[in-house]
Specification:
The relative contact order is 0.22. Helix 1 runs parallel beside helix 3. The chain has seven helices and twelve strands. It is of the alpha+beta class. It has a five-stranded antiparallel sheet, with helices on both faces. Strand 7 and strand 8 form a beta hairpin.
């Protein structure tokens, strides 16, 4: 029998890298967008989550386009000096591109954009390195799925199969007639402390979401005047709650070179 050609093993060491191709595409797409939109916004993110960034893009899809790529590439596309900038003043905006940030090319005026980002704050589970927004303690007695966050009458007992996992995470639990019991209160985290991986696992196990995704505008460029406006204090946003947390959600859009967005053209 001849060997089937339908199922082939592809060794990752032999695949072709597309880093340079995608970098050039990102650069070209940013340059292409500059004359099409009256405003360019530099935005920073807090507690980065790729799915939330995709929501931002979909909600702005009618009049805007979002890029979240390599900062050096985005800054280079805007120009690093007056002699290399594609439009007057864009190099001034490039100075504000650093850390976890992106660009929004938009038809929306600054007040409309600021109003939008101020109301978009979805909550998700914290990761290691996130600062705890409040203290969480497991009550003594029988453990429930929400760990005391909601009334017992609205909750259900924790599954007995999770008891070994709790003990591995340092919670002194025991089984009693198929129920997970805790002889004394156990503090999972304190408000203001940097969370470890074990703490974030426990928080997720009990449905406690502490990471608030946020988008904040740092500065914007106005095409009509060739000037920029800077939001006071916005540069410090990414230092709040992000220390030690890896931005691991960001993915390259293979269609147009955008980062952290869906595969659909924006």
């Amino acid at each position: 029998m001849p060997r089937s050609k339908r199922a082939k093993v592809v060794h990752l060491t032999k695949t072709q890298k597309k880093g340079k191709e995608l970098t050039l595409r990102l650069y070209a797409n940013i340059r292409e967008c500059i004359p099409q939109y009256p405003y360019i916004y530099v935005f920073s993110v807090e507690n980065m989550r790729n799915n939330h960034l995709k929501d931002v893009r979909s909600q702005l899809a009618n009049d805007s386009r979002v890029f979240f790529g390599k900062t050096r590439v985005m800054a280079k596309a805007l120009g690093d000096s007056p002699s290399t900038e594609p439009y007057p003043g864009t190099c001034l905006l490039a100075a504000h591109i650093s850390g976890p940030c992106g660009l929004i090319f938009s038809q929306r005026d600054p007040q409309s954009m600021l109003d939008y980002v101020s109301t978009f704050h979805p909550i998700s589970y914290a990761r290691a390195g996130t600062v705890a927004s409040y203290s969480f303690t497991l009550p003594s007695g029988m453990l429930y799925t929400r760990g005391g966050e909601i009334p017992i009458t609205e909750d259900v007992p924790l599954a007995h199969s999770l008891e070994p996992t709790l003990r591995k995470l340092g919670v002194p639990t025991r089984l009693e007639k198929g129920r997970v019991m805790l002889d004394e209160e156990f503090q999972v985290c304190k408000e203001g402390e940097v969370l470890g991986s074990g703490q974030t696992t426990l928080l997720k196990m009990f449905g406690v979401a502490m990471a608030e995704f946020g988008v904040e505008v740092r500065a914007w460029w106005i095409k009509e005047t060739g000037t920029i406006e800077v939001v006071e204090g916005a540069e410090q946003m990414n230092q709040k709650g992000n220390s030690g947390e890896r931005i691991r959600d960001v993915e390259m859009d293979r269609e147009d070179g955008d980062l952290g967005v869906s595969d659909e053209e924006g």
